[in-house]
Specification:
By secondary structure, the protein is of the alpha/beta class. Helix content is 33%, strand content 25%.
Amino acid sequence: MAKTVIVGITGSIAAYKAAEVVRGLSKQGMEVHVMMTEGACKFITPLTLETLSGNPVAVDMFSEYQREKVPHIAYAKQADLVIIVPATAATIGRLATGIADDMIGATVLATRAPVLLAPAMNSQMYNHPLVQNNLQRLEEIGYEVITPALGELACGDVGDGRLADVSHILEQVIGKLGGQNDFQGKNILVTAGPTREFIDPIRFISNPSSGKMGYALAQAAADRGANVVLISGPTGEKPPTKGKVVRVTTAAEMLQEVMKYFPKMDIVIKAAAVVDYRPQSRAVQKIKKGDGQIQLSLEKNPDILKLLGSRKGEKILVGFAAETQDLVKNAREKLTGKNLDLIVANDVGQAGAGFSTDTNIAHVLHRDGRVVEFPLGTKTQLAHLILDEVLSIAGAEV
């Protein structure tokens, strides 16, 4: 049965891009119903959206009574997902305060479906504390915000506030609906981000991991029905909309939390970039810079992944390998040596892959010798592909 998506379009010049969103969702076989504010109609006509969606477009809440007895309730009940694209500062403010003075506001207030917001506005407006507070308030009650892109704005300024790429918006909607509950009821542990090993109170050893890949995996697994625990090192990434997030800093803390949750897990995906070495001792006070050199003695951190491999039993264990040479050879050695079921390997020196990027390129190695290559794509796309490979191992049991 086709999923039903309500697309709310508000009065921003980016409204013309909503036509591509509607078209993209319709091509995916989804039932799309469009709602527009009067302001949106100044930028794009309802006829355009009606043609693309194949359904009447709702603009005036009261005229809709000709088709439905209580139209906003009818729309709210049939929706599998609601997305506001673009979402203006005015619409965000009304939603945050529960004002339901148009079809979009009334429907959002009445629905129990997931709600996504794709803001688009001038960067000064987007970064205004009132707008940010309203977005935070909406996120706290479970709405999901698709972060705007950085780029040239309609006014000629360059900054954040530009509507996210249509492909990214479609990816988020499809990922949320996907029709996939193939991990329903399964417990998945994901680790993400770097760890830090302190030299003194203000200096530490770490790495450039942003946590983006691990966070994408946690969100993708949750969207596909899993009960997710995300154990994260220090990162600026927004937490997934579902599941539990546990914050840690050092490798020792990550080990402690991983072992705490490990026994109840069905699948463990270790995407964190754990620092391999730590200082043998940590200075209590800041080490003052002198004229001479400082000798720093390091000791090995515990190998969390190898420990899990020795205790995994029937669990599925997935590791990551960030390499700069001999990608497949080094990844296969890690796969075997740590008793993994899968390993995701990427060459961090390759353009578009590795730390801090929104995209990735990967080789996925299986225990049976298979190697699956995934070309450049977003980390969200790769996260779903990795989960598909996990399914290929688990078969009907997942």
